[in-house]
Amino acid sequence: MGSFYYNTRTNQVEELADKSQSKDLLGPYGSRDEAERAVQTAHERTEQWDKEDREWEGED
Description:
alpha+beta, 3-stranded antiparallel sheet, 22% strand
């Protein structure tokens, strides 16, 4: 299991030992670099899923 989290309230990477409330976190991630890219990764995945939904519905 990863030990890094991205805090959406503070926009900071946190480690497992000092993490904030779960409601503010994305993760866990396996590395600090992955956690730093959390928002970008979430955006990319959402865009891909939206594209797949449009294709499934015949809109693309």
